[in-house]
Amino acid sequence: MGEQPIFTTRAHVFQIDPTTKKNWVPASKQAVTVSYFYDSTRNSYRIISVDGSKVIINSTITPNMTFTKTSQKFGQWADSRANTVFGLGFASEQQLAKFAEKFQEVKEAAKLARDKSQEKMETSSNNSQESGRETPSSTQASSINGTDDEKISHGGPETAALMSENDKLKTTVEQSNTNAKKLETELQTLRDSNARLVDALTESSANVEIWKKQLNTCKEESDTLREKIAELESQCEKANVEKERNSKLTVRVQELETELQDKEQELENLRKQAEIIPQLMAECESITEKLQAADVKNKDLEDRMEGLQADIEDSQSKQGNMKGELKKFMDVLDGKIDELHEFRQGLSKLGVDN
Q: Measuring CA to CA, which residue among 206, 346, 188, 137 is closest to residue 354?
């Protein structure tokens, strides 16, 4: 079946800076597809990500790898074969958790595949050693007893068992040779893949240099644009100051025009009032005459008031005398009333005695 994808997600891809080994360098401008692949022929797992026509991740998972969550949405793992550290930035915590779980599953599967491969290699090596030990004895038996047919015809059942075991050993050796050829093929494929990765790394390094130059050029252009923007802002500020001055001058001119109109109106009113002045002077003279006549009348009234004041004072003195006499009369009247009261009491006592 070849290599098939078993899990796919999207993330921003980063690689550790090979110089500082601390800073992250973006390997993709935007989120790209990151997939787990399983090769049934080689019984291996890989993480692959392609941005356009460029391979940015080609990492074969081994049991020694570890995926580490460094933040809520970021994780990383080290690839010793590629001599780098890959980092993935996800859009959510759930995507990061799923990727980490899948990494652990694939890591366990890779470990099982390695263990099975080691068992097969040990079995094949043991079989090869046994074949190496037993083949001389069979050759010696053949040389002593003759051909295989003669051995079968003359040696009996023991010889037949040795022959069948020898055939099994030959089959095992052939299978081990076949496995060795497969391993050589896989090794050559890995070498080719490594060469392609080296080429891709070289190309990416060249692209990094080009990007650095472009970045420096962009920075210079940005600085130039900032200077131009600063100059334009200063010119705009000057223009705004001039506009404010012009607006203030316009307002001041309008105020002066309004004041001038008011002054002209006042002057016109004064001219009209100047025309009325002779009439006002005549009215003032007549009013003065009337005031003089009123003064004369006031003096007469003051004389009358003085006479009336003297009459009032006389009447007040007479009224005071009358009040004194009235008080004396009231006192006499009170005495008479007391005598009358005593007289009545005496009459009432006489009536009681009678």
A: 346
